[in-house]
Write a structure and sequence with these properties.
The protein is mainly beta. Helices cover about 5% and strands about 35% of the residues.
Length: about 190
């Protein structure tokens, strides 16, 4: 005679003690919005002089150059117009009170660590509300000063030349105030 289904059900009142188990993992950063980024040595090996020249290497970007060297340079991403591009320099939004468009030709690559382009905004939850107001965002991150052998000051002098007797001098000064606080100033 076959056994009934009730005979094969195990008892449910048994208690088992399990050994402790610890799970450790690192959280990987995933961007919801795809990012295009140039940073570090790759940014320096491009052979460009300004942020506008470096941004030319991103897809979907059109550079509008009004006047060559020293002229206004703006970007247009996905044909939305320059007024829809937010530019953030170390987290601070840049703007022009006259026309609202940022001239990207005035920012040098000498003190720049990375340039990022987002179709939308960063995927960070802790950001200013102004970050959400742009259809496209360009984030410029400057280099953090590095001091060796107990030095308190770093100086960097540069001189670039071009055609038609174009000369572009630059100076970068970095000063360590304390072990965790430093400042830098640069001009071209």
């Amino acid at each position: 005679m076959p056994a009934s289904a009730a005979d094969t059900i195990p008892e449910m009142d048994t208690v088992y003690a399990l050994d402790e188990l610890m799970v450790v993992a690192t959280r990987t950063s995933q961007e919801i919005v795809p990012v295009q980024m140039l940073s570090g040595e790759k940014l320096r090996t491009l052979g460009t002089h300004s942020i506008a020249d470096a941004i030319r290497y991103f897809s979907g970007v059109q550079i509008k150059d009004y006047g060559g060297i020293g002229g206004l340079k703006t970007i247009n991403v996905r044909s939305l117009g320059s007024q829809h591009v937010g530019v953030f320099y170390d987290g601070v939004e840049l703007g022009n009170a006259q026309n609202g468009i940022v001239d990207l030709g005035r920012f040098s690559l000498d003190n720049m660590e990375s340039v990022s382009l987002y179709n939308g905004q960063k995927s960070s939850t802790l950001q200013a509300a102004k970050d959400y107001a742009s259809a496209t965002a360009v984030y410029l991150q400057t280099k953090k000063p590095r001091f060796e052998d107990g030095k308190r000051n770093n100086w960097n002098f540069g001189l670039k030349g071009g055609s038609f007797a174009t000369v572009n001098p630059s100076v970068l000064w970095e000063h360590r105030i304390s072990d965790r606080v430093s400042l830098s100033a640069s001009t071209e």
